[in-house]
């Protein structure tokens, strides 16, 4: 039977996949409704983050009784600041601000499927119930088996407000704030194969957050800086897999993935029960399924987890990760995903993450091609391109991609943030998926021809924004 608590009691409160957090039982405001159901809940205040939430009684523990155990299990800076805040209150003999009794209604979560989110601390300054997703005031409709890990950053002062709708119904990105410093790294040994434009930044963030990482790259020289940062190096791919609990792979294309997994001294050579492999490359569904079947046939666990983002998000740890496959492995990768990204979605069966990534990059490529055409038309029409960009930045087109790619076009600076040849590869794979599903994709097909034309002009290794050169002829 769940313990009974009173208003003012200091407790450890746990929400979904959050760690237990120093909290206090408080009285909810009159406009905050209790969830309906059969299990008792209490309304709690989270120290250090200023959160409030309904928490099931079974997820509450007395503070003093479990204090040593909880402190030993969590090394995060913000967590310990919250503990210090509680102890300061206890030293002063402080209790709840409102000592009125609270009714303990019987509550259970809604039967609707909801989106789950993980973070290293409760949602800052927001109220949540056991049946809603973290960061949303209402359960989203029709999310099926999807779940997600979320890590958000504060909005920079010069960022445009992309969320100008009613905040009583939605949260803004700046409402959810946590620090990479608060991530508690997994005790599992992590391997990482592929240190290109994306992989090197991802590994650096794993190291910064305290993960034990062994790396490998086809060109060993690329390992040097990461070794200085704290990584170890494996001589071969299968050596890394043999030494690590979870190994991530991030390489250029399906052929590179097949070589990495099935080649001599490849991933498959060291896969056995207890080993796990996470494929983060953007590839086709057939390849990811072949890899999954081979890994699982040897007793290993497999997860696809391609990333949405370019060089800068990879360096900043702000990628979006879309995963499919072994759910237990997704959960075991929690601290790694928090280190590498701002949000990680679990989408279900193997292939779902790859399909999501191909759709996303197909849309990105189509938009980039249209943007390049627009800039070319503006120039041909005698418009000043700087003024065109200024107009875009003040209107509904304002976003990071328009700003950065527009500046690249304006100044003819095409250092690769995301190489054009990789964007064209993703367009090709998306179009192949469309063919397989009998889906007409005329806009994407036309955009793909522009990227192919740009490659023929020698822009394959340049940034994807250099597709502009295929239009300015």
From TrEMBL:
GO terms for biological process: transcription elongation-coupled chromatin remodeling. One of its GO terms (molecular function) is nucleosome binding. SMART domains: PWWP. It is found in: Chromosome. It is an enzyme of class 1 (oxidoreductase). InterPro entries: 3-OH-isobutyrate_DH-rel_CS, 6-PGluconate_DH-like_C_sf, 6PGD_dom2, 6PGDH_NADP-bd, GLYR1_PWWP, HIBADH-like_NADP-bd, HIBADH-related_NP60_sf, NAD(P)-bd_dom_sf. Residues 7-66 form the PWWP domain. Pfam families: NAD_binding_11, NAD_binding_2, PWWP. Its main location: nucleus. It catalyses: glycolate + NADP(+) = glyoxylate + NADPH + H(+); 4-hydroxybutanoate + NADP(+) = succinate semialdehyde + NADPH + H(+). Coiled coil: none annotated. GO terms for cellular component: chromatin; cytoplasm. Its EC number is 1.1.1.79, 1.1.1.n11. Catalyzes the NADPH-dependent reduction of glyoxylate to glycolate as well as succinic semialdehyde (SSA) to gamma-hydroxybutyrate in vitro. May function in redox homeostasis and play a role in oxidative stress tolerance by detoxifying glyoxylate and SSA generated in glycolate metabolism and GABA metabolism, respectively. Belongs to the HIBADH-related family. NP60 subfamily. This is Cytokine-like nuclear factor N-PAC. It comes from Branchiostoma belcheri (Amphioxus). The lineage of its organism: Eukaryota, Metazoa, Chordata, Cephalochordata, Leptocardii. The gene is LOC109472756.
